[in-house]
Design a protein that fits this description.
By secondary structure, this protein is of the alpha/beta class. 42% of the residues lie in helices and 21% in strands.
Length: 291
């Protein structure tokens, strides 16, 4: 039995959109508009600026620079904050009760890229809610999503939120990776359990498919592979080239040197895809990566 997760796909979605005047801002606005039209989202826009800029800042100019005045159906709230970006973003999200934080991740200059990645990782580490780090190439709801799952609460939460963001005719790929045995003796001992393991994973996949309750036009596929987890996930994503990769991660994993951290950090820092990270503490119901 998988951990229960109740995230109604049709209920209003409170979204905090963190904007900076850069190449990702227009994509963030476009995706937010799509969420309003298709997922009944309620966005709040914010921008965090340096303290020394705040006094001389013209709100209308900043709104324009962040593309926050481009054809919006109504004037969404636009707030200016000062301080450390990650702290301001997560604090405001908690105050608003936001269910999703969106921010950009696709800058050309190396200094900006390092700052953006640090902010994204810090927000992911501090937030209690999913964080969508958007590459500028994503300008609408994702049509193709890869969701690595280990059937823990975190990965199931990631799958549910990915389903909520997915285009109504989109394709979701659920991916489970079995790691190889640690020793020859272990390999021999587990040969007889291969069929049981395959059936166990397929049963968990089927249960998750049902729980996700996809729209009639959506397709959910499953992939059960073996090998090193990060290597297998990168190979799968390179083959599929998804619009979005949705990962479950505990908050500490984003900043510490754990295996989960290496996966999350690699997708945030080095991959070409937008990334959704859903935080949740792992629980005993998760399937082990090794038999």
């Amino acid at each position: 039995m998988l951990p229960s997760m109740s995230i109604p796909a049709s209920s209003a979605l409170s979204v905090l959109v963190a904007l900076t005047p850069d190449e990702c801002a227009r994509s963030l606005i476009r995706v937010a508009k799509a969420l309003v039209r298709r997922r009944n989202a309620k966005p709040t826009l914010m921008s965090v600026v340096d303290d020394w800029k705040a006094g001389a800042l013209d709100e209308s100019e900043l709104r324009h620079a962040c593309h926050a005045d481009e054809g919006l159906p109504q004037k969404w709230p636009f707030e200016i904050h000062t301080g450390t970006p990650s702290e301001q973003i997560t604090s405001r999200a908690r105050q608003l009760g936001a269910q999703l934080i969106m921010l950009g991740l696709n800058l050309h200059r190396a200094s900006q890229r390092a700052d953006a990645r640090h902010t994204v990782r810090a927000v992911m580490a501090e937030s209690n809610e999913p964080v969508l780090a958007l590459r500028r190439s994503l300008k609408k709801l994702p049509h193709s999503v890869v969701v690595p799952v280990d059937f823990s609460r975190a990965s199931i939460k990631a799958a549910h939120f990915a389903r909520r963001l997915l285009d109504s005719r989109g394709l979701m790929h659920l991916v489970f990776v079995d790691t190889p045995p640690q020793s020859a003796d272990h390999a021999t001992a587990t040969q007889g359990t291969t069929s049981f393991r395959r059936a166990e994973v397929e049963s968990a996949f089927n249960e998750l498919r049902i729980a996700l309750a996809p729209d009639p036009g959506m397709t959910i596929t499953t992939i059960h592979s073996q090998g090193d987890v990060l290597t297998a996930l990168l190979q799968t994503c390179n083959q599929i080239d998804p619009d979005l990769v949705a990962l479950g991660s505990s908050r500490r994993d984003v900043l510490t040197g754990t295996r989960a951290n290496s996966i999350t950090r690699t997708f945030v820092d080095e991959s070409a895809w937008s990334v959704l990270v859903a935080p949740a503490e792992p629980d005993a119901a998760a399937l082990s990566s090794a038999a």
